[in-house]
Design goal:
CATH architecture of the largest domain: 3-Layer(aba) Sandwich
Helix content: 25-40%
Strand content: 15-25%
Radius of gyration: 25 Å
Distance between the termini: 13 Å
Number of helices: 13
Number of domains: 3
Structural class: alpha/beta
CATH superfamily of the largest domain: NAD(P)-binding Rossmann-like Domain
Number of strands: 16
Order of helices and strands: EHEEEHEHHHEHEHEHEHEHEEHEHEEHE
CATH class of the largest domain: Alpha Beta
Length: 387
Amino acid sequence: MFQIKCLNPIAKVGLDNFSDQYTVTEEVQEADGILVRSASMHEMELPKRLLAVARAGAGVNNIPLDKCAEQGIVVFNTPGANANGVKELVLAGMLLAARDVVGGIEWVKSTKDDENIAKAAEKEKKNFAGTEIMGKKLGVIGLGAIGVKVANAAVALGMEVYGYDPYLSVNAAWNLSRSVKHVLNVDDIYAECDYITIHVPLMDATKGMINGEAIAKMKKGVNLLNFARDLLADEKAVLEGLQSGQIAHYVSDFPNPTTAGAPGCIVIPHLGASTEESEDNCAVMAVEELKDYLENGNIRNSVNYPACDMGVCAKAGRVAIFHKNIANMISKFTAVFGEKGINISDMTNKSRGEVAYTMLDVETALTEDIVKALESIDGVFRARIVK
């Protein structure tokens, strides 16, 4: 029986996919798996029995990834599950930047008591006139699940789309419209595009990538959209760009004291993935990832361990080992089984940076003394019997 703790509300359609092998617990210390959305886990004392954390969403800044890796705790996310919801809001953001819809709505509210409001609107509407996005140039920085959807949708709306991603995956390339111009230098997007939207993960290399130097390279009057992470932009430099007229609008999905209410900023209260469909999709995907790992040891969409899939174990036993990515580990593992006279029928080993993951199927039922022997090997973080 596996026990699951939900640190945030998780959509019922996802939780309903758990079989009677699972129970939802209120106690973190009893949890074999954790489902989380936005709750911060950095100050949390992770239970010794915890095997996995599944983030119902893409960003994992609220989870201590290295700490989890060192304890043999797999962290999953759900890339692409909320992509359509974010894509649709990005399109809305472009339209809000192109047409002063918000200003017009606020004017109507302020004039609601005027019995001649319809006549007044005909005179006032020129103050809210904008431009169409058809025919304009859009630059998409980051062509992952969301970026590809945004690029393709913008093509369908008649925009001229430029895409930049030095790490473009094969899957993304297959899904990307042929009409998108794939550029090899981000400066081309800065120089050419009327709208720029960012869809990259927040890492040391991307933090503050939209800075004063980048803004200076942009086309004057650019509309900048950030639905990825606020820290990707140096927002003080963005405000300076708005004041100088280099930037026409900054559309962000991340309210903070720097941008909230600032002239030229259209700030949305983090609604990108806040749709019923996105929350359902993320919950279902997170639950499926947890189940496949807890029941079979398979890892899919982990952010701190390599992908690994041996299907469903048809042998007497399966063991999973988390360890440092160093030489001679496999020979040490096989020696443990050899000493106990246990035959290995199948094995896989995958690595990711400084960590690695090994699974072995054996022809004898496993006992906890095997786990103890494996965990006594220098460089092993954790071993667990899957079956």
